[in-house]
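Annual report, structural modelling task.

Input specification for the adenosine-5'-triphosphate complex:
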Amino acid sequence: MDAIIADSIVKDFGSVRALDGVSVEVAAGELFFLLGASGCGKTTLLRCIAGLETPTSGTISFGERDVTTLPPHKREAAMVFQSYALWPHLSVEKNVAFGLEERKIPRAEIRQRVGEALDLVHLTGLGERGIDQLSGGQQQRVALARALVVRPKCLLLDEPLSNLDAKLRIEMRREIRRIVKEGGLTAIYVTHDQEEALSMADRMAVMNRGKIEQLGTSEDVYRNPHTAFVASFIGETNLIKGRVVEVRGEYAMVKTEAGPLVGRVTRPEWQPVAGDDVTLSIRPEAWHVEAASGENGVTGKITERSYLGQRIQYVVDTPLGPQQVVELNPHVVREPGETPVRLTARHADVAVLQVQMQVNMR
Ligand code: ATP
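The model returned the following structure:
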């Protein structure tokens, strides 16, 4: 088990800057996620760590070892791809044994290690099967066993569940986490699926345009987004424009189209001052629907309702624009119509975010 440290990584493909000075430290034994929209650079960063790309500048270390220029097979890292890249004409056992045969490991040891790897991914006894006799989820387990059999210190996963149906994906999330933790591996997992990341990650980095925009635990990133991009990429949110009137400690009063709202400054290294333009982020479940007039809120009318059993989703038309609202465990089902409703939010549930200059890099 090794820590993985990427320091100031820049990667250019011709005139395209895919990575723009990325630094990240993944702790030994951590399951770490790289998350972001298509083209943000997450696969490129993973490939630099695997040794499949060489950074234009910056260094990559595994523990104390600088591996920046080491070829992939000398890094003790194994990669699992979206397309499992299995040999369809070989048995499960032969597929898993492939990396060990290449390394000229003695036959008896190969048999033992393949057995252990199949046990770990819960495919005990299926070694003789052909790849085409397996379900999608089982094929993904074979790909994992093949990566694990070489006893890597680091496991690098590139959208490993994208080819599975929704139910299997959820089952395999638990499985991959178990395998990483039982195997004592340091793992980096690339996905654009925020739910996968929220449910599995020890920590995650949200990437945008070749940079890490925020890094933290699932709970921290969800509850304390630092930018509007992160707030809307991780989970649903309502974004509201405003201007700071007054700041008290970590709380700020913000003037909006519908009067003042008090919120919390979520990015510790930023201190707003009166007059700053800001964006407020309010999660759909942070809005409470009330009939009476409550403090820290806005009045509107329900225009849409979707009843989903354990929750109800409403769209409420307000002077701040349409607000997405979610009521969990609803006891009252409200009707869309003319009757005004009041949406209110706790101060701590309103994130006050700095308005960022959008610099177009490409
Ligand atoms: P996706 O989720 O679509 O896989 P990503 O976040 O993994 O996206 P990357 O594949 O890392 O993104 O790509 C980052 C940027 O670098 C993109 O603009 C992409 O077009 C560019 N890029 C990646 N690989 C190459 C390459 N071999 N040659 C030229 N440009 C590349």
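The mean pLDDT is 92.
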